[in-house]
Amino acid sequence: MTKAVNARLDKLLSSMGYGSRREIGGLARADRIVLNGENVNDVTRRIRVTADLPTRITVDGIPLDPVAGLVILLNKPAGVTCSHNEAGPLVYDLLPTRWRRRDPALSTVGRLDKETSGLLLLTDDGELLHRITSPKRKVSKTYRATLSRPLNGDEVALFASGTLVLKGETKPLDPAILEVMSPTEAHLTITEGRYHQVRRMFAACGNHVEALRRERLGQFHLPEELAVGSWRLLGGEEQQLIFR
Ligand code: URA
Question: Does pTM surpass 0.90?
């Protein structure tokens, strides 16, 4: 889709989830698609696929979604799953339905546990997804953990040591930074993404994570004004902060 210089309008909009090609025809007949200020009559016409398309096409008066390289920032609530097909509420249910029909499909950038909340990215950009999640890049992730028991005082040194081995594993964890905020609250910054890593790190110290929220990816902070369950597109400069 994105490599083609020209594309049929109905095919393009269909691949972006706006409906079947027939439905796109229906939208045009109802004057709901506007290209360069004029209603579109012929949806089989070919148009140049350029990054500025959202400034030239509107559907129902709303600028077109980015054609490719859609990066969505979601403030994930606890209780929803990062999956396309598991039972129960899914993160995709929080987004416009057309985004579930995009081709290439949207995926979450890594996963948060069902009960973890906070900063979650979704994208159709496979290369960006790989850059953020690749173990070689060591993009840092900062979580705020609420614990059921007071910290015992050893955790900062233990997590920073690079010697902690999680239950059932043999390879020690990379050093991690723990910033204690109160006896039962702390920020933990890790550069790996092992299964249930944060919860298992505290479990290794005899503690239990009651609530977990991701607040930062690299130097990009979850904006305070983004309500839980809300999303917005992530701009290019914000994406760069992830790699700082
Ligand atoms: N570590 C966890 O234990 N859970 C998450 O969701 C993310 C990191």
Answer: yes
